[in-house]
Amino acid sequence: MTLQLAQATALAQDAAEASGAASLAWLLIALPAAGALVLFLAGRRADAWGHWLGVATVAGSFAIGLAIFVQTLGLAPDERLREQSLWSWMSSGALDVDFGLRLDPLSITFVLLITGVGALIHLYSVGYMSHDPNRRRFFAQLNLFVAAMLVLVLGNNFVMLYLGWEGVGLASYLLIGFFQDRPAAATAAKKAFIMNRVGDVGLAIAIFLIWLELGSLQYSEVFARIGEVPGGTVLAITLLLLLGACGKSGQFPLQAWLPDAMEGPTPVSALIHAATMVTAGVYLIARAAPIYNLSETGRLVVCLIGVVTLMIGAIVGCAYDDIKKVLAYSTVSQIGYMILAVGLGPVGYALGILHLLTHGFFKAGLFLGAGSVMHAMNDDVDMRRFGGLWRTMPVTFVTFGLGYLALIGFPFLAGYYSKDAIIAAAFAQGGWQGWVFGGFATLAAGLTGFYMTRLMLMTFFGESRWKELRSTDGREYHPHESPVSMTAPMVVLAFGSVFAGFLLYPVLPGWLAPSVGERVAAEGGPVPYSVVPFLVVGVSLLGVLLAYLFVGRRPVPVQRPQRVSPVVAAARADLGANAFNEAFLERPGIWLTRLLVFFDNRGIDGLVNGTAAAFGGGSGRLRRTQTGFVRSYALSMLGGGVLIVAAMLAVRFA
Amino acid sequence: MIAPLDPIVPGSGGNPLLIVLLLVPLVGAAALYPARRNAAAAKAIAMVTALVELALVVVAWSLYSVPAAQAGTRFQFEFSAPWIPAFGTHIAFGVDGISLALIALTAFLVPILLLFAWSEKLPEGRSVAGYFGLLLATQSTLVGVFAATDVFLFYVFFEAMLVPMYFLIGRFGGPRRQYAAVKFFLYSLLGGLIMLASLIGLYVTSAEQLGRGTFTWADLQAIAADTPTAVQIWLFLGFFVAFAIKAPLVPFHTWLPDAGAEAPIVAAVLLVGVLDKVGTYGFLRYLLPLFPQASQVLAPVVLVLAVAGIIYAALLAVGQTDMGRFVAYTSVAHFGFIALGVFAFSSQAFAGATLYMVNHGLSTGMLFLMVGMLIARGGSRLISDYGGVAKLAPVMAGCLLLAGMSSLALPGTNSFVSEFLVLIGSFPTRPVFTIIATVGIIFAALYVLWFYQRTMQGPVRGGAVIAALERGGAGGPGTMLDPGVAADRNKAGFPDLGRREVGLLAPLIVVIVVLGFYPAPVLDVINPSVTATMAELGLPDPVPAGGIVR
Fold first, then answer.
1. Which residues of A touch B389 (CB under 8 A)?
2. Predicted structure pTM score
C-alpha cells in the first residue's frame, strides 16, 4: 500500500513546462483540426485537392510527434513529464478547468500510434475512396477524428479527456453513417453514439466524484492526492471509469455497437474501430493507473470484464461470414485482452499498451487488407462468395497473411510477444483468478486461431467461388490487386505486424514507467511463466488445425447452412446481446414513450384543458348570478370584504 | 462614460443607457406603423433598429465593469425615478452580469430572426410591418423585464411581454394558432396573477419591517432574511408558480408544445429562446435572494420537478411527430437542467445555469431556425413528411446536425460548458438528483439523433420532400436517387441553404463553437453576479474537500 502510494506520488511529480520541440504540442491537434475546418467550409471547391490536405495535416502531426519523441528520449526519465497550458477553459468559483496538454511517455506513445497509423490510413483512403463523390467530406471527418483523438490522449485533465472522448464519438458517428442514404448505416451510427453515451454517463459521474473528493480535475493533482480518498469512493470511481471504458472500447455489456459500426467505410473500421478509438478505454485505465492501483476490487472487476469480453468476441467471431464482422469481433476480443492486462495492475499496464500497439499495426493491416479485397470484389463482404484470391491479389494476400500470423500469435511475430505476455501475467495471478483469467485467455487464443484460419481459408484459399457468381447489383467479379496508394500502407503495416513485438517488448515497459509506474514482474501462479508460450502456441495451433479440418478440407457452400448446432446459432445471434437490448431496452422504451405521450396529452394537458372547460362552464353558471338586484351585489361585496380582511389578518399574524 | 441624467423628479437620476436600450426597439416598432404599406421600407427600418440595438448592447457590454462587480457593485448603469410614490414604486433599472447576458442574447438573436423572416410568406392580410413591429416590441419588453430593479416594474413587464407575443402567435401562427395563443396567454396570465398576489404580500411585509412599503429589489433583498420562513414560503409559492409556468417546468409545461408548434418560427425562437428564460431568471433573481429560507426549504420540491422534467420531457421529445412540438419538448428537458443548477446552490451550478440560459437560446434558436428552413421548403410540420434530406441539401443537414449536437451538449459546443458546470456544481450538494440528470444525456442523444435520422438520413423520401421535388419539375417516387440526379433536382425542388440562410446561421455557428472552447467572455461577466447571488442566499459556496485550484 505504501509502495503504491509512493509510486502514485512519483507519478504525480510536478510537470515541467514544455519547451523545445515539445512547445509545438498544440500543433499536433491544431493541424488536423484546421484541416477538418478547411475541408468542411471549403465545400465542393476543395474536391480536387481536399484529400491531399487531409493526408498532409496528419503526416505533419506525425512529424511533430516524432520530433517530440526524439527530444523526450534525450531527457532523464523523471523529466519526461511535461505540460503545456493553453488557456483557462472554464472557471467558476473554485473550479478552474485548464485547456492544457500533458506530454509524457504514455501520451507520446499514443500520438505516434494515432498519427502514424492515421497517416497511413489517410493515404490508403485516397485510393479507396477515389470513386466516392463525397471523398472530401470523408477526409474532413477523418481529420476531425484525428484531432479529437489527440485531444483525448494529450489532455492534462479529465475534462479534456471527456472533450476528446465525446469528440471521437462524434467523428465515429459521422463516419459510421458516412453512407447516409443506407438506413443500416444510419442506424448503426446512432446505436454507436447512444451506447457510447451510456458509458459517458459513467465517465461523467466519475469526474464529478473526483471533483467532490479532491477539488481538482488535473491529472497531476488528482494522482498526487488520490490516496486521501476513502476506499469505497475509489472503488466507485474505478467502476465508473470502467463503464466509460466499456462504452468506448466495445466491452461487455456495451459491445453490441462495435460490429454494427462496420457499416462505415473500411478505412474507418481500420483506424477508428480497430487501431485507435476503441482502445481509448485501455488508455483511460492505464492513465488512471494511480487510481486503479488503490482498488484491488476495482481491478478484479476490470479483469472479469476483459475475460468475459475476450471470450464473447472469440466465440462470435467463429460464426460470422462477413469478413469485416469477423475482424470486428476479433477486435472486441483483442481489446478484452488489453482490458484484462491493465486490470492486472502494475504487472500488466505496460503489457496492455504493448498489445494495443501491436494490435494497432496488425489489425489495421488486416482491415486494410479486407478493404482491398472488398475493393476488388464489388464491395462484397460475404466470405462465402470469395475463395482462391491469393492468386489475383498477391500483395494483399502476403500482407494480410502476415497480419493473420501476428494476430494468432505465431512465434516471434507481434502478437506472440504481446498476447502471450498478457496470458502469462494472467496465470501469474495465482488462486482462482490465475486459473480463470489465464485459462480463458488461452482458450480464446485457440478460438482466435480457429476463426482467423477460417477467414483466411474462405477468402484466399480453396475454390474461386466468385467465378460462378454475380454481385447483388448484377456485375461480374473481376478481382484485381489494389493501387499502390493502398498497398503501400498495407506493406508498412505488415512490417509492423512482423517486427513491432520483437522491437517493443524489451523497451516499452521501461519507457512507459514514468507514466504508468515500473512494471512488476509476473511470478508464481499455476502455470510457470516459461511454459506459457508453449501452451498458448500449442492451443492456437490446435485452433488452426481444427479450422483446417472443418473448413479447409471440404468445399465452402455459398449459401449459409441454416441447420446448425445451437452453439453456432447462438454465436450467429451475437450471443443474444442484440436480442437482449431489443427485448429489455428498445421495445419497452418505445412503449414507455408512447405511454408518456398519451399521458401528457390526455393526462396533464387534459387536466389543464378540463380546468379551462370547467371555468368556461362555471362562468356560464356564474353569469346567472348577475341578477341585477342590488341586494345580491351587496351580499357579494360583503363576502369579498370579509375575505380580504381575513387575508390581511392572516398575513399580519402569520 | 455616459453622463448621468439630470433629475426630472427629485430623487431620480442615473445612467440612461438601459432606458435607451428599452426605447430603441419600441421607437423602431412605432416607426413601422407609417411603413405598414411598404414592406421594403418596413424591413429596412426594423433591421436598422435591431442593429442599432445590437451596437448599443455591445457598448453596454464593453462598459460593464467586471472588477466593479467583483468589488460588490450589485447593479450597473442604474437609473431610478419615483413612479407611484404612494406605493413606493420606481422606474428603476440596472443590470448585473446575469441580466446583461440575457439582454445581449436577445439583441444578438433579433437581427438573425428578422433576416430569417425576411421573405417569409405571411398569412392573408398580415403586413411585414406588423410582424416585425411585434418582434421589436417583444424585444423592448424583454429588456424591461431583465433590467428592472423594482419588483413592481418587473411585474408590469412580465405581463406586458405577453401582449406582443400573443399577437405574434395568434395572427402569424399555424393552423391552430388561436388555440395556442389563447392557451399561452391565459396560462401565463394566471401565473402572473398569482405572482401579483405574492407581490402585494411582499409589499405588506416590507411595510411591516421598514415602516414604509417598497418594491425596490435591493431594499426587499436587504430585509429578506428577517421575514419569517412561513411567510416566505407562501410568497415564494406565488412567484414560483408564475416562473414555473413561464420556464416551464413539468407539469406546467403543456402550453409550450402548442405554442412551439403553432407560433411562427421567429416567435418560437424568441419565446423559447429568451422569453421563457424569464422564468429561470426569476428563480435566480427573485426567488433565491428575496425568499432565501423558503428557497432552501422548498428546493427539494423544485429539484424533483426539474429532474423529472429532464427525463420525462426527453422521452416525450422522442415520441413527437410534429417538429415544433419536438423542439419544444427538448426545451422543457433543458429547462430542467437550468432549474437543477439554480436550486443546487453552488457557484458553479449558478454560473452553469445562467450560461445555460444563454446557450439554450443559441442552440434551440438554431434548431428552430433549421426546422423553419425545412418547413419553408416542404410546407409541412410533420417529421414523417421528411426523409433523406441530407442527400438533397447537405449543408442544411450539416447545420441541423451542429444544432443538434449543441442541443445534446457535445463537448466543443457552447452547451457542454453550461451543462457540465450545472452538473459538476450540483453534484456536491445534490448527488442523487445530479446522477439522474446525468442519465438524461443518453436520452438527449436519443432524441437528437433519431430526429436527425428520420429527417436527414436514409433514402430520399417523405410526402413533403417528394411533393417539393415534383413541384420543382423533378418527378419520381421516393426511390433512391442517384447523387448526380439529385444534385440537379434539388436546385429546382428542394434547394440547399441559400446565401441569406447561410448568412443568418453563420453568426450562430461561430458563437456556438467559440463559446464551446472559450466561454470566458461570458463566464467572466456572469461569475461576480453569481457570487453575489450566493451571498444573498446566505449559504456558503460548497467548496469540495480539497478546494485547491489548479
1. none
2. 0.91
